[in-house]
Amino acid sequence: MLVLVIDTETTGIDPSKNKTIEMAAALVDLKTKTILKSYSCLMPSETNEAEKFNGISAEMLSSPAIKTVDLKPFLDMAKESGCFVAHNAQFDRSFLTRAFKDHHPEALLASSEFKIGQVPWFCSYQNINHSDVFNTKISSRKLTHIAVDIGLVPTKAHRALADVLTLVDILLKIPDVNDIVEKFVSSVPPIKPLYKAHFDFHDKEIPKSHGFRWEPLDKSWRKEMSDDEVAALPFKVELVDG
């Protein structure tokens, strides 16, 4: 099975306020345990409040070489993969979406030929019992701790490509990793994109009657829907998550 192993570095933990400033990915064949392709890029930002964690300075992010961000290599690999893999997938999924909103928004449109939001995510933090698969005591589920506990020497932590390669090394040490991920993907129901409708909370009867739920953080009504369900709505909606 081909999977895309992903990591992001960000200016904070809230994708509605903070930016994705680095993204890396490796297309991996789990059956042959081979890295087929890889990709990494920095993304511009005037500031980085998380510099002390990821070591990415504002000066690095102001380089003219990254003024234009090209996410096409990532999309090309995504189209070939059957699953995205990340260590804390919920976080990386939200900031992957933020990166595309900022630099390649057309990829998130409902009309897009390839719907990035419908690719299943496998979380190596939550979906693997590390002590069982490695048959050894794992001191912590942190990426670098797992690597050290199974005899790997991780490179610089909290840089996207380094973390991707560390995660790939961990995955490829699992004897039946291909079967584990294939079984997980086959059990995941089809993913529908998330949409939001802009109704005031007090106008709740219309969105509620169509199955939307209120999201207080950005004051919108949200629902996961297929293309046909969106087309059948009597009001307009906006795509939230790729």
Walk me through this protein's architecture.
The protein has 242 residues and is α+β, with helices and mostly antiparallel strands. The protein has 2 domains: 2-187, Nucleotidyltransferase, domain 5, CATH 3.30.420.10; 194-241, no CATH class. It is 30% helix and 21% strand. It contains 9 helices and 9 strands. The protein has helices at residues 51-54, 72-80, 89-103, 130-134, 143-149, 160-171, 177-187, 205-209, 227-231; strands at 2-10, 20-29, 34-42, 84-86, 121-123, 194-197, 213-215, 220-224, 238-241. The strands form 2 sheets. It has a 5-stranded mixed sheet with strand order 3-2-1-4-5, sandwiched between helices. Strands 7-8-6-9 form a 4-stranded antiparallel sheet, with no helix packed on it. β7 (213-215) and β8 form a beta hairpin. It is globular and about 60 Å long. The two termini are 23 Å apart. The mean pLDDT is 91.
Number of domains: 2
Estimate percent helicity.
25-40%
Q: Say which CATH homologous superfamily of the largest domain is assigned.
A: Ribonuclease H-like superfamily/Ribonuclease H
Going by helix content, strand content and strand pairing, the class is alpha+beta
Distance between the termini: 23 Å
For the largest beta-sheet, the strand count, sense and barrel status come to: 5 strands, mixed
Strand order across the biggest sheet?
3-2-1-4-5
- Looking at the structure, what is the overall shape? globular
Rg result: 19 Å
- CATH class of the largest domain, named Alpha Beta
Summarize the helix and strand pattern as letters.
EEEHHEHEHHHHEHEEHE
- Which residue ranges are poorly predicted, with pLDDT under 50 across at least 5 consecutive positions? none
Rounded mean pLDDT is 91
Beta content comes to 15-25%
**What name is given to the CATH topology of the largest domain?**
Nucleotidyltransferase, domain 5
Number of helices: 9
CATH architecture of the largest domain: 2-Layer Sandwich
How many beta-strand runs?
9
